[in-house]
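Translate structure to sequence.
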C-alpha cells in the first residue's frame, strides 16, 4: 500500500460516503520549537533539549542516515519493525453538541462513531464495512445510519472504497 496516497483516498471517501459532509481532512501543524528527550549513554540520565528549525533538520537527517546505514541503502529488509502513520480528521458540527442533542433531538456521537469510523476503518483496512462488523451488527448499524450513508452498505461498496 502506498501510504502517501492514504490522505487523498480518505478525503475522496469522505466526500463519497459522508452525505452530510461532516468529516473533513485536517492538517497537523507542528510548533516551531520541539523538545527532544535523549539518554546519552546506557546508564546516563535522561536529558531534554529544545530543537529549533535548524536542529530539527539536522536530527531528521541523522535519523534518515541511520536508517539508510541499517538497511544498507534499502538492500536489506528491516523485519520486526513497525511504521507509524499519523492522520487526522475533524468531525464538524453545525451547532454545539448540546444544542444538537437537546434542540434537534439528534445524537451526533452515534453518527460520528458509526459513519465516520466506518469510513475511516474501511478505507484503511481496504474492506467493506459489512466485512469489518460482526454479522449480527451489520443490520443494526445499517438501520441506525438510515439514509445517512446508504452507499456504505451497497454490495459495490468494496469497489467504491478504493
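Result:
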Amino acid at each position: 500500500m502506498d501510504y502517501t496516497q492514504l490522505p487523498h483516498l480518505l478525503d475522496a471517501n469522505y466526500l463519497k460516503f459522508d452525505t452530510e459532509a461532516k468529516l473533513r481532512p485536517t492538517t497537523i501543524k507542528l510548533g516551531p520549537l520541539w523538545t527532544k528527550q535523549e539518554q546519552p549513554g546506557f546508564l546516563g540520565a535522561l536529558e531534554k533539549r529544545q530543537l529549533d528549525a535548524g536542529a530539527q533538520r539536522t536530527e531528521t537527517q541523522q535519523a534518515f542516515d541511520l536508517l539508510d546505514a541499517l538497511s544498507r541503502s534499502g538492500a536489506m529488509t528491516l523485519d520486526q519493525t513497525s511504521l507509524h502513520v499519523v492522520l487526522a480528521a475533524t468531525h464538524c458540527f453545525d451547532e454545539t453538541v448540546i444544542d444538537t442533542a437537546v434542540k434537534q433531538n439528534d445524537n451526533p456521537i452515534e453518527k460520528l462513531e458509526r459513519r465516520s469510523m466506518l469510513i475511516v476503518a474501511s478505507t484503511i483496512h481496504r474492506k467493506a464495512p459489512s466485512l469489518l462488523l460482526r454479522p449480527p451488527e451489520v443490520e443494526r448499524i445499517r438501520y441506525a445510519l438510515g439514509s445517512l450513508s446508504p452507499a456504505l452498505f451497497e454490495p459495490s461498496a468494496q469497489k467504491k472504497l478504493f
